[in-house]
Amino acid sequence: MHHASPVDRLLDFLERSPTPWHAVANMAERLEAAGYRRLDETQPWTLAAGERVYVTRNDASIIALQLPKGRLEALRMIGAHTDSPGLHLKPHAAQHSAGWLQLGVQVYGGVLLAPWFDRDLGLAGRVHLRHPDGRIEGVLLNVDWPVATVPSLAIHLDREANSGRAINPQTEMAAVLLQGGDSDDFNGLLKGWLDAQHGIQDAEPLDFELALYDTQPPARVGARGELIASARLDNLLSCFIGLEALLDCNGEQGAVLVANDHEEVGSASASGAQGPFLGDVLRRVNAQLGEAGDEGFIRLIQASRMISCDNAHALHPNFKDKHDAGHGPAINGGPVIKVNASQRYATNSATSALFHDLCREAEVPVQTFVTRADMGCGSTIGPITATELGVPTLDVGVAQWGMHSIRETAGSEDAERLIRVLTAYLNRAELV
Q1: Is the dihedral of CA 381, 382, 385, 388 positive or negative?
Q2: Same domain, 313 and 372
Q3: Of 167-171, 304-308, 320-324, the least confident
Q4: DSSP codes, 358-394
Q5: Residue range of the domain that includes 340
Q6: Tally of structural domains, the chain
Q7: In the chain, what are the helix, strand and coil shares in percent, each to the nearest 5?
Q8: Do 405 and 394 touch, CB atoms closer than 8 A?
Q9: Per the domain annotation, does 91 fall within a domain?
Q10: Does residue 420 share a domain with residue 394?
């Protein structure tokens, strides 16, 4: 697939990754094709210098490592997250109203709710089944055609609809699935989809983690294709960019890509950035290839660097006043360094200087974002990873519009630029 352009590969990855589980499976597939060996956290590891390995946790977070050909003395780390805000199904999702079988939803992360109305929605995630022999298995499901929709209420019945009316996700956002029917019908549909996708006919679904998603495929937009429009750009765009850089690097240095789940809900989970996943993996690697013991591990971490990649807010032509006049990143203006004095981003002048130098080396323009002093600031995995691990960290990202919408927009030139910069970073012999 590497003959396609980076943008074509990106659009394909976005379309095939409706959930974090699908994203991780697709990343793992590309890593294995490039010679990466899968490790199992429950088994002993045997690692050799120069090897390429990867490991997943909960099938929704992934760490890939290019082990250095020489001594393990410093790691060039790239961080991203696999999850996106959206509407997830409740455990007992099937509900009825006015002769329709509907799916009750729970809100995952900071969802921009209004754009979810009147979309052609598919359904994806994972289902755990019990087979007739008692074996329990988890399988991925992707119902990639429009099976549901959340219809708007006509303006004639709500004259205040355009006046900033609040949206109640409990009472107003249940998705319409089937005329008539009952909860047994939803179970029957689920079994039919599992049969169609996996040939599973006689297993009983025990539980699921399923989410609705927009089936409209990603696209290039704009008179000259200047833009990419897609669901889940935040933050599958960074997962893709980090993966491309890792696959493009020369393999001489120690390189790590970590893509965590659960960033959009605070990162506090076994597989989230606040959990022990990255630390666990790096301690095991250091025990075999580095200087043993706590001191050796701390020295490795302090000699390493982390570039956390999560998208930045681009200057919006209709809302220019939402940005500080000197810090309005432009779409297709190059990667954005994210700065916040209150440590909502982990960037400091030392880590920022390294990135400026990498951009100069890669001949890529660079921008800086800081929020207006009278507005709050979102956060990302950068400060959490820096806090948990102690690694010097920098927060960067591609500029985008419509963050946390069902369909987001970014520049078609920016992904390839950040890939170039991060590849230079992974190839760099000295990190200071």
Answers
A1: negative
A2: yes
A3: 320-324
A4: HHHHHT---EEE---TTS-----HHHHHHHHH---EE
A5: 6-84+231-427
A6: 2
A7: 30, 30, 40
A8: no
A9: yes
A10: yes
